[in-house]
Amino acid sequence: MLTRRHFIITTTTLFSGAIAAPTLAQDAVELGVDEAPDQGPTAGANNPWGLHPRFMPQRVQANSGLTPGDIHVDPTARYLYHIEDGGTAMRYGVAVGRAGLYQAGRFRIGRTAEWPSWTPTANMIAREPHIYAQYAGGVPGGPDNPLGARALYLYSGSRDTYLRIHGTPQPWSIGTSASSGCVRLVNDHVIQLEANVRVGATAVLHS
What we know:
Blueprint: H1 4-14, E1 15-16, H2 22-31, E2 58-62, E3 71-74, E4 79-83, E5 88-93, E6 96-97, E7 105-114, H3 122-127, H4 129-132, E8 150-156, E9 159-166, E10 177-179, E11 183-184, H5 187-195, E12 202-205
Parallel strand pairs: 3-12, 6-10, 9-11
Antiparallel strand pairs: 1-2, 2-5, 3-4, 4-5, 7-8, 7-12, 8-9
């Protein structure tokens, strides 16, 4: 079981991020993360979404022992880490599930899709019919689809959990708790992520 204590121990020791802004140095002290030189190949890239710089993709250090190809999501800092060979990870800013809807666990990436279609779950419709009932028949893929440009489908064994790591047409939501349980990235970032993800890899959503 992934406990809060497990999450604090894990995420404060597994990853050493590129700390650029002075305000983030204090965050680094509080989290026990060592400051490191900026290694992010896109950390200073064009940012048309107006994201906080810390939510732009950055390459960071990862502890030994992590499996290359796996994904780890830190819901408190709103980061997703994709583990690479050579002791590094690509870090992306994300939005996570609203209070009570985020689901921690260890999952398998069962498949991926480009410009996926989307249908709200029965639970989503029952919980917020005024928002989701109109989409019960499904929404085709495209730039206005809630799943954005790419989706990674999270499975538990052979069962689709209906949790996704996906893009979004709402980039302003990155860094917040905004979704119905999924993890979302800016479309450009999820395209980059999906291109490097192996179906069958593990995705750990920490508590």
